[in-house]
Amino acid sequence: MEAAGIAHGAHAEHEHHGPPPANSSSRVEPQLLGMLLFIISEVMVFGAFFTAYFFIRVAQGNPWPAHGTTLPVEVAGVNTAILVSSSFTVHWAQTAIKKGNRFGLKAGILTTFLLGCSFLFIQINEYANIGFAPQDGAQQTIFYSLTGLHGAHVFIGLLLLLFVTIRAFRGHYTPEEHRGVEVPGIYWHFVDIMWIVVYTTVYVL
User: Fold this and answer.
1) What is the pLDDT of residue 3?
2) For the chain, how far is it from start to end, CA to CA, in angstroms?
3) Alpha-carbon torsion angle 168, 173, 179, 184, nearest 10
4) Which pLDDT belongs to residue 198?
5) Which of 155, 163, 167 is nearest to 191 (CA)?
6) Which pLDDT score is estimated for 69?
7) Helix, strand, or coil here: 205?
8) How many CA atoms lie within 13 A of 8 on its CB side?
9) What is the C-alpha separation between 125 and 109, in angstroms, rounded?
10) What DSSP assignment string belongs to 23-47?
11) Less packed terminus of the chain by CB within 10 Å, N or C?
12) Domain boundary assignment for the chain
């Protein structure tokens, strides 16, 4: 009887009710998952504006840009080079902290922040001198909507980079704990890639 009770108890211990426990090694960290979900939602927002762009330009056959207006393709091209360069500098910062190179982290993040500020300054200056306003027509509305939406994302990215820069100079990151650099870096890469799409579609094609 006693042996049977022990066997029954051992069997009960091995019984499992409900779904099996999750494998923690396959989980995505909450910060990373949150950023990826946010990026997916932002891609859909951009998609809505691109749909309006293609409807005006392709479905309705309206000229792009509108008659009597020109887009500063060369200036935007320089701005594109600036923003693409910032992707390399933020990658430099991410790689540096993983190797324990604190100078590389600080130099990379600070350079990325300054490049982002330069991009936003040039874009604001472009708005001030472009010669048309959002309410002038459908093409102008879409132009300001797409570029302005991206500019808002650059501004958000700069706030994140500023926070990372301050923490980096205070010595808050280590090769073991650098998620605070990696997650904003992913967002910044998204901002850069989205600008390449906006620049190619709006300014070049």
Assistant:
1) 47
2) 84
3) 0
4) 95
5) 155
6) 87
7) coil
8) 5
9) 24
10) -GGGPPPHHHHHHHHHHHHHHHHHH
11) N
12) 39-55+72-204
Q: Which residue's entry shows tokens 């922040």?
A: 113
Q: How far, in Å, CA of 46 to CA of 176, rounded? A: 35
Identify residue 124 by its one-letter amino acid code.
Answer: I
SS3 68: coil
CA 110 to centroid of chain Cα atoms: 17
CATH class of segment(s) 39-55+72-204: mainly alpha
- In Å, what is the CA distance from 167 to each residue of 51, 102, 106, 190? 40, 12, 9, 22
d(CA 119, CA 103): 24
The set of residues, in sequence order, having a beta carbon less than 8 Å from that of 82 and lying 6+ positions away, is 115, 118, 119, 122
Its sign, for the CA torsion 103, 104, 106, 107, is positive
Please identify every stretch of the chain with a pLDDT value under 70, giving residue numbers as ranges. 1-28
What are 127's two structure tokens? 């708005």
d(CA 123, CA 69): 17
